[in-house]
Amino acid sequence: MKTKIGPRKTRKEHGKRAAEPWGASDDRAGGAIDRFRADLELPCSFRVFRGFRSTWLGAACAVLASSGAASAMAQAVPSNVPGAKPQDTEQWTPVPPVVTPGATSTAPPSDAIVLFDGKDLHEWVNTRDKAPAGWSVANGVMTVEKKAGNIETRRSFKNYQLHLEWRVPVNVTGSGQARGNSGVFLASTGPADAGYELQILDSYKNETYVNGQAGSLYKQYPPLANAARPPGQWQSYDVIWTAPTFAADGAVKTKARVTAFHNGVLIQDDAVLAGETLYIGKPTYKAYDRAPIKLQAHGDPSPPLSFRNIWVRELPGK
Q1: 90-144 per-position pLDDT tens digit
Q2: Upstream peptide bond of 97 is cis (omega within 30 degrees of 0)
Q3: Cβ pair 267, 225 in contact under 8 A
Q4: Is the N or the C terminus of the chain less surrounded, counting Cβ atoms within 10 Å?
Q5: How far apart are CA 279 and CA 216, in angstroms?
Q6: For the chain, where are the alpha helices, taking DSSP H only?
Q7: How many angstroms separate the Cα of 274 from the Cα of each of 138, 216, 284?
């Protein structure tokens, strides 16, 4: 059975609506939208068109209105202090100093002290007798001379940010602690290996005790991750050193703290040291004020490591 479709109704056949001029209902809709927009103080304005488009524009405006209102409410959370103003919590001084970053993320910024730029060792001395450092420099690289012993900076530091790059030779030999061993002492507090050591070692597929691998605060904290690259590739340490402080009688006021990154990977997260590095026994503190930074010439039989691009930024105390 077919349904018979009658003729389309004219607007006159819609009863009361027939008396309305064409678009009058749309005008009412547009007026409602305008009032809705005004009530919500919308930052938008648009022309309401005749016909079905007013419906779409009205819906869009409603979405914008609810979004804008929610945003305004999020930024106007009432304070729990009567009469409080945004200006009450604004700080204008002291103004931070302007520091120009290096051309790359590893280049020294404008306020850095460059400790090795590939040219010479004038910033370094032999730890044992403060004579010239005695390590070799060639092609922009400093290489350990094991017979010369440890070297340290001429200058002394307290709190600082340190960047240095190091490389285990591609022809490295040995295993465990006898494979590419060295260290950076964040504070050299005496001859030989006295101080606070961040371990340097070939830890790429080289098993050893975890608080003695690369990135460990030697014999105190293992690294949070093993970020070692293979021998022959350059690696980097970026370190924040907060020196310990002492009372007049030598008692510890605040302990040393270290945050460090190995090849951009966080390996020490505000680690609190129990004292200076000791190979045997428990770490202890001894009072000092400022100290050099030291590089270790370890006595293991493997070929020597190399260093480059070493710089430091002094930081204020906390």
Answers
A1: 999 999 999 999 999 999 999 999 999 999 999 999 999 999 999 999 999 999 9
A2: no
A3: yes
A4: N
A5: 13
A6: 24-40, 53-75
A7: 39, 14, 6
Written as six digits, the tokens of 154 are: 């001429």
Contact 315, 170 (CB under 8 A): no
Beta pairing partners, 197: 185
Which residues, other chains included, contact 18 with Cβ-Cβ below 8 Å and sequence gap of 6+? 10, 11, 12
Q: What is the largest CA-CA distance in the chain?
A: 114
Segments making up each domain of the chain, as ranges? 22-73, 113-314
Question: For residues 308 and 155, is the Cβ–Cβ distance under 8 A?
Answer: no
| Residue-level length of the chain | 318
Residue with tokens 């703290």: 257
Alpha carbon distances (Å) from 295 to 135, 198, 207, 298: 11, 10, 23, 9
**Residue range 62-92, pLDDT digits in tens:** 544 455 544 444 466 778 889 999 999 999 9
Contact (CB, 8 A) for 157 and 314? yes
Both structure tokens of 198: 């961040």
Distance (Å, rounded) from C-alpha 195 to C-alpha 85? 50
Neighbours of 79 (CB within 10 A): 12
Angle at 60 between CA 59 and CA 66, to 5 degrees: 90
Class of domain 113-314: mainly beta
